[in-house]
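BUG: 3D viewer hangs when loading the predicted structure for this chain

Environment: internal workstation, default settings.
Expected: structure renders.
Actual: progress bar stalls at 90%.

Input used:
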Amino acid sequence: MKIEIAGQNAFIVYFADQTSAAISARIQAAVANILATMGDSIIDLVPSYASLLVIFDLDRSDHFAIRKQLGAALTDLDNIDSSAGELVTLPVYYGVESGPDLEGIAERAGLSIEQVIEIHQQQEYRVYAIGFAPGFAYLGEVDERIAAPRLATPRQKVPRGAVAIADRQTAVYPAVSPGGWNLIGLCPTRMFDPDRTPSMPVKVGDRIRFEGISRDEFLAQGGEL
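Structure tokens produced before the viewer hung:
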């Protein structure tokens, strides 16, 4: 674990070179410890795949004091349960109509479309980071049988709620946007709503499962085709 200066009022903590469920759990434990012991001095904490950005209030503390407090808050993180984190189930209308890249993934993998859908639902995914756009949660790890490279030419318009795969990550697009991930379905759950509290149904460290629903159920839950 390394603590490095990341700005006038920020440190970044590197937990490992690569991410994993265990590293993600350690980061979430660190977030809880820091908030519990340093909350008055903290402006924001930004967890990512294998690091944590700590932004602090210079009017309340300084680099020397914060670094010392961070060192204390980052102890005793080795025995964290990697299955920690809230389990969130997201409904998905899988199919060629809602997932134009399903057929391509199936052909590349030597599987049927139904098998690709089944494999995607069997996995439990960890929210490793949220970025690119508000509510865009990077989820891993996708079963290597259905992992798929990003599209050579990104789409100019990906619909809100599109469930997608890129390499061994999967995600749900929170809003209409350009995108180069492989689309396999649509989710009616809004991944970002500024009028709700909390504004996102998932957070870094949560565990995600996808559950297939029918076209009618998708539309009844507010989905749009």
